[in-house]
Amino acid sequence: MTGVKKPHPSIFEYALTLAKANKVESIMIGDSLEADVEGAFRFWN
Predict the structure, then answer these.
(1) Going by C-beta distance under 8 Å and a sequence separation of 6 or more, which residues neighbour residue 26?
(2) In a 3-state reduction of DSSP, which class is residue 28?
(3) What are phi and psi of 31, to 5 degrees?
(4) Residue 3, C-beta contacts closer than 8 angstroms, at least 6 positions apart
């Protein structure tokens, strides 16, 4: 585990690593604007 929760960017990196995916070819689907969408946006940039 990462020891952090969304919207911390490292949780998104961890999830992509587990999925063996990369952010260029991935999308974020979530139910929280702040935790899911904003967190993924910050991770992307």
Answers:
(1) 16, 19
(2) coil
(3) -115, 5
(4) none
pLDDT digits (tens, 9 = 90+) for 10-45: 999 999 999 999 999 999 899 999 889 888 988 888
Provide the 10 A C-beta neighbour count for residue 3. Answer: 8
- Would you say 6 and 35 are in contact if contact means Cβ atoms under 8 Å apart? yes
Token pair, residue 12, equals: 């998104």
Q: And the tokens for 3? A: 């020891």
Contact (Cβ atoms closer than 8 angstroms) between residue 39 and residue 6: yes
Structure tokens at 22: 């990369």
